[in-house]
């Protein structure tokens, strides 16, 4: 019992910090949003004709970003498990580069790449298509995918490198075509990592502010911009509090749902690692 | 295709397996020497063939070539006379048992065992019946809904065994399947594999580096060394009639006297001239110049008068090792003190380290083997 109490002592500083910088402001926002005991601000979220559209656009953008990330990230993480350690390190660095670049530099770079007359526009004009991704939802999604890719690749890499490749040999020996062996054995064992990556990328996408503000069009703002507008320009703290609460609840609900989905899967993933360890000892 | 286990006649060994024929099989990874070098071997239907050898001798690569996990550099592999050299593994219809069990962790025991049947698109009731049957055979009835991680190592390997035989494979390939288990469990599973080979009656190809395992289980052993087969034969052939020094020393202990035979057929070692019985000269030793005389420790005596039909050498006892059922005298043989061993049975006299003795053995118990 005493040892346990001491363990709690160790996390006390972190808990205190979280309480001071997260729970207290969150409580104040909540209190503001229901100021005067009315749910007026929540009601207006659904009736002002803007909030729901922006929320839907944000969710759609986040979904596209997540899809791009998993489509790019899965083969990338798979490759990382297959190459020699030095090349693996290099692949890791490449995926982390956007992480280490300044937010502003990265986003202005995207503006230059995507704007009219930029390399992407010039390339498509060769084929007679005057495609401008700057100030489009697609452009925002591409720029967001770049910086969010590590959040997909890292959990996926960790999940994939835990999969015993001899299971694929076993499946082939038991009569499975290599492609079928992948879908019946490798894919189910990687699902825990996929779900973890999906949750991370999707929830992070929901809160993106700088990229949609710089790369996107003002008339196509996402929910973070709407929040910013309400707090810094309209000074509508009550409305902003209500919107913040709504986003928080939606996000938590999604995470809870995905966790239930991934919970059973990651339990299996944990089990999967056990026999391999036993065999080595 | 052989049918699954027949429970009506459990004792009749139905030899229904496939004949596996390796002809000039070679696998070269481009290293200094080929991993498998011109191996030819015919494994008869229903036979329990063990590929035995030290690590790196090419036995596992040979098994992977039979399974189709590796491609041949040269040579061919045929099942029942049909060339399968270019057939992918999933079309070879072979059961495979791995050292790490390779059970699918996301599937239950029953789903694991049903896997090859599902891949063969069998009807559901038939799958259920075969799974129940084979789980009974490996004595795991009632564990259907467990996940592999909930089972012990021995149980996991029995599930893997069930999964490998449930679809009536052409042959069962076993890649050191007992290597990860502790000693007691290994013995139990050895007996289990032996029994299942008898009951299923299909061809078994078993890879191991453990000579005891090989001796206990096999109909025949192919002893591998440096990518080549050193000798093929029954366990008794290999132990009692070794062709080469490698065979004589890899299987069991041997006292080795390295020398050349005299033209008169005798064998000279230091200042001893030993009688040689023609029947104990291996074919490969007769064909070459590089030979050695070997004697098993259990054939060496240290007491009593040396009979006429025996060879003898002076020796000094270096140490006595107590092994429980018997003792082993560690010897220094001849003037140069070549290391040797003699087994002392329970009734043998007490010897002390440092004691000088005469070590002798019946001429018929020695072997002249090739050293190259």
From TrEMBL, chain A:
Bilayer topology term: Multi-pass membrane protein
InterPro entries: MetI-like (IPR000515), MetI-like_sf (IPR035906)
Swiss-Prot/TrEMBL keywords: Cell membrane, Membrane, Transmembrane, Transmembrane helix, Transport
Gene3D superfamilies, A to Z: MetI-like
Domain ABC transmembrane type-1: 55-258
Subcellular localization, as worded in the UniProt entry: Cell membrane
GO cellular component terms given for this protein: plasma membrane
KW Transmembrane helix (keyword) present: yes
Residues that span the membrane, as ranges: 53-77, 89-113, 133-157, 194-217, 237-258
Gene Ontology annotations of biological process type: transmembrane transport
Main localization of the protein described in the UniProt heading: membrane
PANTHER family found in the cross-reference section: ABC TRANSPORTER PERMEASE PROTEIN (PTHR42929:SF5), INNER MEMBRANE ABC TRANSPORTER PERMEASE PROTEIN YDCU-RELATED-RELATED (PTHR42929)
Family: Belongs to the binding-protein-dependent transport system permease family. CysTW subfamily.
Listed name of the protein: ABC transmembrane type-1 domain-containing protein
Organism: Paractinoplanes toevensis
Automatic annotation (TrEMBL), chain B:
Record Pfam families: ABC_tran, TOBE_2
Catalysis performed (reactions): ATP + H2O + polyamine-[polyamine-binding protein]Side 1 = ADP + phosphate + polyamineSide 2 + [polyamine-binding protein]Side 1
UniProt record, GO biological process: quaternary ammonium group transport
PANTHER family: SPERMIDINE/PUTRESCINE IMPORT ATP-BINDING PROTEIN POTA, SPERMIDINE_PUTRESCINE IMPORT ATP-BINDING PROTEIN POTA
Quaternary structure and interacting proteins, as annotated: The complex is composed of two ATP-binding proteins (PotA), two transmembrane proteins (PotB and PotC) and a solute-binding protein (PotD).
Function in brief: Part of the ABC transporter complex PotABCD involved in spermidine/putrescine import. Responsible for energy coupling to the transport system.
Name assigned to this protein: Spermidine/putrescine import ATP-binding protein PotA
Record organism: Paractinoplanes toevensis
């Amino acid at each position: 019992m005493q040892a346990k109490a001491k363990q709690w002592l160790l996390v006390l500083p972190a808990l205190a910090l979280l309480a001071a910088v997260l729970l207290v402001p969150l409580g104040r926002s909540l209190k503001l949003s229901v100021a005067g005991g009315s749910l007026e601000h929540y009601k207006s979220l659904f009736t002002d004709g803007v909030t729901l559209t922006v929320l839907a656009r944000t969710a759609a953008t986040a979904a596209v970003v997540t899809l791009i990330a998993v489509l790019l990230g899965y083969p990338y993480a798979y490759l990382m498990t297959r190459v020699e350690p030095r090349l693996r390190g290099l692949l890791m660095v490449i995926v982390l580069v956007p992480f280490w670049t300044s937010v502003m530099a990265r986003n202005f770079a995207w503006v230059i790449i995507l704007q009219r007359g930029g390399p992407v526009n010039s390339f498509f004009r060769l084929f007679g298509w005057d495609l401008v991704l700057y100030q489009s939802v697609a452009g925002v999604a591409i720029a967001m995918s770049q910086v969010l890719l590590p959040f997909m690749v890292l959990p996926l890499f960790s999940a994939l490198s835990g999969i015993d490749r001899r299971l694929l040999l076993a499946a082939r020996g038991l009569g499975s075509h290599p492609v079928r062996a992948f879908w019946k054995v490798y894919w189910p064992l990687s699902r825990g990592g996929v779900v973890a990556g999906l949750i991370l990328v999707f929830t992070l996408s929901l809160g993106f502010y700088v990229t949609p503000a710089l790369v996107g069009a003002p008339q196509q703002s996402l929910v973070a911009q709407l929040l910013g507008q309400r707090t810094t320009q309209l000074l509508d703290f009550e409305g902003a509090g209500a919107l913040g609460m709504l986003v928080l609840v939606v996000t938590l609900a999604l995470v809870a749902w995905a966790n239930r989905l991934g919970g059973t899967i990651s339990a299996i993933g944990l089990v999967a690692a056990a026999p391999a360890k036993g065999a080595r000892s | 295709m052989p049918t699954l286990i027949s429970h009506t006649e459990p004792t009749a060994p139905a030899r229904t397996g496939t004949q596996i024929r390796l002809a000039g099989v070679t696998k070269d990874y481009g290293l200094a020497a080929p991993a498998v070098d011109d191996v030819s071997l015919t494994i008869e239907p229903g036979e329990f063939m063990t590929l035995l050898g030290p690590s790196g001798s090419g036995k596992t690569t040979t098994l992977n070539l039979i399974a189709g996990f590796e491609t041949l550099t040269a040579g061919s592999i045929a099942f029942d006379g049909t060339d399968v050299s270019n057939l992918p593994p999933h079309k070879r219809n072979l059961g495979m048992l791995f050292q790490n069990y390779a059970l699918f962790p996301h599937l239950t025991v029953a789903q694991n065992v049903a896997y090859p049947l599902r891949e063969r698109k069998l009807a559901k009731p038939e799958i259920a019946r075969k799974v129940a049957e084979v789980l009974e055979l490996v004595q795991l009835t009632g564990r259907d809904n467990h996940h592999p991680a909930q089972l012990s190592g021995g149980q996991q390997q029995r599930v893997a065994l069930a999964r490998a035989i449930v679809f009536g494979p052409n042959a069962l390939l076993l890649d050191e399947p007992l290597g990860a288990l502790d000693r007691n469990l290994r013995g139990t599973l050895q007996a289990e594999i032996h029994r299942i080979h008898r009951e299923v009656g299909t061809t078994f190809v078993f890879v191991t580096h453990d000579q005891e395992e090989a001796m206990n289980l096999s109909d025949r052993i192919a002893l591998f060394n440096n990518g080549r087969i050193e000798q093929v034969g029954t366990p008794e052939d290999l132990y009692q009639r070794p062709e080469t020094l490698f065979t004589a020393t890899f299987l069991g202990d041997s006292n080795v006297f390295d020398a050349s035979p005299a033209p008169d057929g005798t064998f000279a070692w230091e200042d001893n001239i030993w009688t040689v019985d023609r029947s104990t000269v291996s074919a490969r030793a007769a064909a070459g110049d590089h030979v050695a005389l070997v004697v098993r420790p259990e054939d060496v005596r240290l007491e009593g008068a040396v009979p006429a039909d025996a060879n003898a050498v002076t020796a000094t006892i270096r140490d006595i090792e107590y092994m429980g059922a018997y003792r082993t005298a560690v010897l220094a043989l001849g003037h140069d003190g070549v290391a040797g061993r003699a087994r002392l049975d329970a009734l043998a006299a007490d010897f002390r380290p440092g004691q000088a003795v005469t070590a002798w053995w019946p001429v018929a118990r020695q072997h002249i083997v090739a050293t190259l």
